[in-house]
């Protein structure tokens, strides 16, 4: 398929006004094994002048196409484009009848048959370029139109769409026409879904899931709906523009590539958010954030839509910020710690790679849709959200909301750019927002803030050395030692501003210098921070006594950055984790530090001969937490400790005892998730076999069980198992769905099995390049992220760099490989420094 260029999109937008899509989909054979579905599209549009253009379409078979009643030659369809030559100025009607392919990669219309009960489910994913796998489309965000969709489905199925869906006859459904929306937001879902419905604010609300997950949805339905209602009401208190669509459905769908998708009126979310097993409070917070995030998109993205994909941040940064903020304001949940731990780390990592880019790239930096796909990353989400948090801190909430509401009113059901948004903010606030945007949105890389603390006559001084060009409003947290292990905060909180320039800002205060000074306490800005030497010494002894989780998170993030930059030995980080994590009450922070210690330090930053000792340290840490939580009062911390103990085990004895007992002593019982995690670790250690994996798959015949089984089989340290997993991933038959590919890749590469896997490194690069060319963006990204060799050596790096130079990877795979290779260089540098 040819990638749509920005120039082509601008030319087409100048030529056309698109009014309406009438789309008829016949999926009646979906549960009988049909490979295709029938799609009929009628598009009414106006040409402002005479000219030539094209419509996007990727069918299995183009049966018939007419323009104003005159037939078009199907043979002219090429690279996903059907030419519309010689258009006269005025009104036109395009009619396209085609057979379209069902997908197993989460794109177009994805078809999933539940292995647990044999029932089939469909859902669409049209973002960003995948609408042409469903219907004929002028597929760009600034050609909005009304969508009038009908669906023929098997009798007894439920059909959902952007508008309220009504069954007009057996299996025949009509969705209410939408207001003008972009093609990438068109959505349908169809299948024997289990639904929980209610009404709120005069609108129908619904949550939907495949039937095998019905008991688990019912268990959490009230929690999900309560968060949905609270967020909906909070948005309406903040925004002048009411919710712009006729219903609000949330469908939890299988094998979904993203966390969720903001289709107007029909949000689709990955069905892992319907929990089958025990989860932590943080995992429930994350689900709440996703609900709030997608609801924010109803305004940021659906009501007012970006004009071109260089302004992805206008969608994602806003939804990311509003998701965390609205959940905080509307509920008792406090998700900003999880944002600081996981989301900002994602942003900082992405922002320090060669592939970094500004939050709002220059227009010529996103010349086509292929390049636009690569910008859905930690910069567009986490860094952009952090920038908006700074904007609110600088402008104040009242001015910020006034600017947003002005922006909505000016561009409702239309398209907007960065310049449009900045104009609205500047007009509402009277502040130089254009200068702020240049500093925060048009630059790349994180600033670094390094304090130098000294005593003065009668007081103390801090000189904050600022490397970077952004202005910052932040807090300095000053803490005094009560004893060797306890700190107390000094009041009042110190707030300072740093100018938008490299340099040093000096502040002085009376009294003794604090024992610990935390720059960016409360995590209000986006910057790498350092601790002065005396503060770091204090933190190593008493970090766990800082009273606020966000304060502790800022210090842990500083330590994380220092390890990654070669300024702190990986072993020192592990030692700090061993000392402070057993008493850490914030589950987001506990999980985040453990994950970094396990995945980066043990698996990448330490040489192979020190990895076992690192895993033993993590095992001891997990046992300590288990001992402290033996009374059952802290099930979330205990669950995290059990997961950590499983992942760090270097011998099978304890795991085998838990497996045979079906429980961890003192709890928890081994639910399906823990059973698969435990069996996977036994597979890595060579302490299970195919027969035991098959028995567990029979015990858990669900989709999650199917993924667990292929993950375990791929992890077995046997040549035949590795060969079978490799063939399943990369054989041109492409039998695996997106989720089964990921599960196989997760099992395949194991640091313990280096000798068995070395020969596969050289095979990986051409295999991944071929797969990416065959299977498209989503599988290319998965191949680069999950199937990348987990062998830290110069050979892996050299072969990867050669592939980037000479191998011709697709843009999606190129970005994924470039990021993985940068992480590999960093790991090699850390190993050399330590």
In short, what is this structure?
With 834 residues, this protein is of the alpha+beta class.
Strand content: 15-25%
Question: Roughly how much helix do the residues carry, as a percent range?
Answer: 40-55%
Low-confidence stretches: none
The major beta sheet can be summarized as: 12 strands, mixed
Describe what this molecule looks like in 3D.
- The chain is of the alpha+beta class and 834 residues long.
- Helix content is 45%, strand content 22%.
- The protein is built from 26 helices and 29 strands.
- Strands 1, 2, 4, 5, 7, 8, 9, 10, 11, 12, 13 and 14 form a 12-stranded mixed β-sheet that branches. A 5-stranded mixed β-sheet has the order 15-16-17-19-18, covered by helices on one side. A 4-stranded mixed β-sheet has the order 27-23-22-29.
- A hairpin with a 2-residue loop joins strand 24 and strand 25.
- Helix 8 crosses helix 9.
- The longest helix is centred in the N-terminal third of the chain and has 25 residues, at 214-238.
- The chain is globular and about 85 Å long.
């Amino acid at each position: 398929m040819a990638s749509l260029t920005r120039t082509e999109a601008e030319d087409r937008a100048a030529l056309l006004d698109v009014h309406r899509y009438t789309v008829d989909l016949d999926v009646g054979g979906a549960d009988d094994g049909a490979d295709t579905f029938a799609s009929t599209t009628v598009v009414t549009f106006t040409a402002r002048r005479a000219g030539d253009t094209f419509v996007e379409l990727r069918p299995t078979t183009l049966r018939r196409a007419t323009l104003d009643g005159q037939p078009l030659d199907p043979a002219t369809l090429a690279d996903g484009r059907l030419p519309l030559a010689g258009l006269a100025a005025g009104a036109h009607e395009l009619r396209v009848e085609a057979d379209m392919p069902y997908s197993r990669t989460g794109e177009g219309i994805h078809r999933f048959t539940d292995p647990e009960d044999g029932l089939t489910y469909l859902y669409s994913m049209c973002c960003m370029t995948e609408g042409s796998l469903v219907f004929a489309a002028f597929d760009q965000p600034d050609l909005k139109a009304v969508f009038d969709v009908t669906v023929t489905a098997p009798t007894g199925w439920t059909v959902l769409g952007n508008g309220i869906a009504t069954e007009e006859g057996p299996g025949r459904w009509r969705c209410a026409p939408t207001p003008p929306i972009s093609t990438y937001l068109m959505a349908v879902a169809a299948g024997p879904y289990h639904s929980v419905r209610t009404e709120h604010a005069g609108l129908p609300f619904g949550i939907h899931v495949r039937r095998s997950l019905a008991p688990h949805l019912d268990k959490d339905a009230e929690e999900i709906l309560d968060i949905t209602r609270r967020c909906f009401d909070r948005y309406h208190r903040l925004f002048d523009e009411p919710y712009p669509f006729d219903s609000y459905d949330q469908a939890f769908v299988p094998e979904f590539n993203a966390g969720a998708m903001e289709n107007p009126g029909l949000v689709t979310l990955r069905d892992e958010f319907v929990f089958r097993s025990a989860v932590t409070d943080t995992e429930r917070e994350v689900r709440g954030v996703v609900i709030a995030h997608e609801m924010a998109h109803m305004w940021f993205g659906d009501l007012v839509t970006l004009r071109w994909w260089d302004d992805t941040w206008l969608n994602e940064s806003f939804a990311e910020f509003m998701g965390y903020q609205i959940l905080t304001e509307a509920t008792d949940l406090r998700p900003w710690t999880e944002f600081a731990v996981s989301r900002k780390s994602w942003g900082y990592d992405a922002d320090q790679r060669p592939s970094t880019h500004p939050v709002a790239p220059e227009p010529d930096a996103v010349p086509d849709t292929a390049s636009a796909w690569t910008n859905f990353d930690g910069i567009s989400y986490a860094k952009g959200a952090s920038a908006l948090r700074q904007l609110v801190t600088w402008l104040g909430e009242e001015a910020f909301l006034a600017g947003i509401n002005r922006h909505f009113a000016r561009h409702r059901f239309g398209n907007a750019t960065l310049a449009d948004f900045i104009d609205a903010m500047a007009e509402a606030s009277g502040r130089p927002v254009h200068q702020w945007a240049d500093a925060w949105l048009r630059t790349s890389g994180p600033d670094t803030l390094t304090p130098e603390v000294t005593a003065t006559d009668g007081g103390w001084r801090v000189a904050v050395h600022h490397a970077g060009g952004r202005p910052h409003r932040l807090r300095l947290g000053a803490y005094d030692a009560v004893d060797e292990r306890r700190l107390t905060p000094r009041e009042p909180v110190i707030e300072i501003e740093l100018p938008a320039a490299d340099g040093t800002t000096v502040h002085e205060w009376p009294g003794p210098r604090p024992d610990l000074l935390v720059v960016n306490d409360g995590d209000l800005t986006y910057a790498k921070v350092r601790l002065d030497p005396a503060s770091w010494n204090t933190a190593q002894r008493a970090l766990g006594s800082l009273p606020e989780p966000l304060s502790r998170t800022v210090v842990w993030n500083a330590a994380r950055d220092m390890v990654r930059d070669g300024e702190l030995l990986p072993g020192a980080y592990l030692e700090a984790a061993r000392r402070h994590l057993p008493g850490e009450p914030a589950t987001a922070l506990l999980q985040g530090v453990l994950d970094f210690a396990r995945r980066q330090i043990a698996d990448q930053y330490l040489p192979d001969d020190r990895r076992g000792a690192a895993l033993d340290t993590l095992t001891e840490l997990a046992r300590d937490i288990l001992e402290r939580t033996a009374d059952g009062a802290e099930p979330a911390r205990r669950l995290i400790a059990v997961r950590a103990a499983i992942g760090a085990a270097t011998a099978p004895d304890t795991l085998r005892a838990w497996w045979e007992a079906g429980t961890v002593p003192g709890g928890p019982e081994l639910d399906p998730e823990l059973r698969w995690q435990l069996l996977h670790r036994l597979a890595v250690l060579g302490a299970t076999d195919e027969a035991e994996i098959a028995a567990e798959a029979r015990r858990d015949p669900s989709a999650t069980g199917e993924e667990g089984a292929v993950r375990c089989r791929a992890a077995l340290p046997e040549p035949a198992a590795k060969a079978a997993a490799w063939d399943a991933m990369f054989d041109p038959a492409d039998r695996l769905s997106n989720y089964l590919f990921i599960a196989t890749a997760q099992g395949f590469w194991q640091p313990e099995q280096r000798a068995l896997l070395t020969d596969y490194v050289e095979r990986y690069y051409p295999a991944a390049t071929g797969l990416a060319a065959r299977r498209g963006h989503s599988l290319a990204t998965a191949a680069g992220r999950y199937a990348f060799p987990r062998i830290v050596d110069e050979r892996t790096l050299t072969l990867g760099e050669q592939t980037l130079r000479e191998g011709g990877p697709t843009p999606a795979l190129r970005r994924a490989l470039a990021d993985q290779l940068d992480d590999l260089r960093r790991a090699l540098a850390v190993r050399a420094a330590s």
